[in-house]
Amino acid sequence: MDIVVTILLLILVLGILVFIHELGHFLAARIVGATVYEFALGYGPKLISRKIKGTEYSIRLLPLGGFVKILGDGDFGKKGEKELKKEDREGNLKNKSKLAQIFVMLAGIIMNILLAIVAYSIMLGFSDWKVNLSYEFEDFKPLGATIVREREIDVPYQVLEGSLAEASGMPGEGYIKNINNEFVEYIEDISRLIEGNDTVVIEACDLDSVCNEYNVVVGDDGKIGIAIGSNYYISINYSNHKIFSGFSHLINNTRLISRVFTDLFKEAKDTGDYSTLSNSVSGPVGMFFLIDYFKELGWVPFIALIADLSLSLAFMNIFPIPALDGGRVLILLIESVLGKDLNPRVEALIINLSFILLMVFVVVVMIKDIVNINELKSLFE
User: Fold this and answer.
1) Quick one: which H or E segment has residue 158?
2) Count of C-beta atoms within a 10 Å radius of residue 38
3) How do residues 255-265 score in pLDDT, each as one tens digit?
4) In the chain, which segments carry CATH 2.30.42.10?
5) Residues with Cβ < 8 Å from 349, sequence gap 6 or more?
6) 3-class SS at 331?
7) Which of 259, 292, 338, 352 could form a disulfide with 6 if both were Cys (CB 3.0 to 4.6 A apart)?
8) 23: closest CA among 75, 73, 67?
9) pLDDT score of 101
10) pTM confidence score
11) Mean pLDDT of 200-216
12) What DSSP string runs through 72-94?
């Protein structure tokens, strides 16, 4: 039953993302006066279909996708351009300005970005206007927000075997409160307070919160032989910029993702091991485990996941691949430079071939995920 719930959620999330994306193309086509033949969710045989004011709205058997069929977008329909009625020629997207055509092509991406902004705003509103980050991003300079360090506990420590700290009688595990009567706020305070001393007085508490002072000799290397853990977390705080927080977080999240991928690529290039970079690219199988994990965290993190996926869909469609929106825009820009349209058959061939290659890539990614399914599952345990 749990698997069924995850599958249904996967279909729901994909449905939302695709619906919003295709709705963008549909609305933009209507705005520029282009004729829309069909607005479909899914592929394959039609399950439900209804025609309203010349546009057919349908839900199809395979839920992983969708499309909007616009007159002049890839072909001229069943008739040639010369055989179309005057009103149909006026509704042909190819007869609109290049700017109007580019607007229609980019509208899906714009809608996915708007969905991400709205979802991020909702998530932040129910998360006290902050999002936790990894410690490595403490130096990050966010837009419309501040990086905040928030202390959680006293500094945790563990005594190393045979160390000077062990010789002093300090508990094996616990928390450090003071060194030489000075409060230890963060982990970096420890080395600062120990450095330059022959001995230090450490007030430490064991795991049962029993606290005592211990005279600890400092080694020649300035260490006493303890391993320390972090006692704070890092967050981006938008509390002073709530109105535009969704937009700001989209920009900040994009920058953070870019930083992570840049570091992964650099590491892969230096080591020659591209496995980690490869595993960061996943398909429906990875998305299944992602949704399975997030559904247990509550609806607020799940909203954030939808925002992340919507942003990812927007990024994917920006790529200049003819079958994707970014590629269609590239074709329009080339036509603008040439001063004439590409041959419709040549354009259709380019788009169809790139679509086939894209599907091959998707299948390869799915096979990779299935082969590495145990490793993929371990990421969400």
Assistant:
1) strand 155-159
2) 16
3) 999 998 888 88
4) 153-230
5) none
6) helix
7) 292
8) 67
9) 95
10) 0.84
11) 95
12) TSSS-TTS-GGGS-HHHHHT-GG
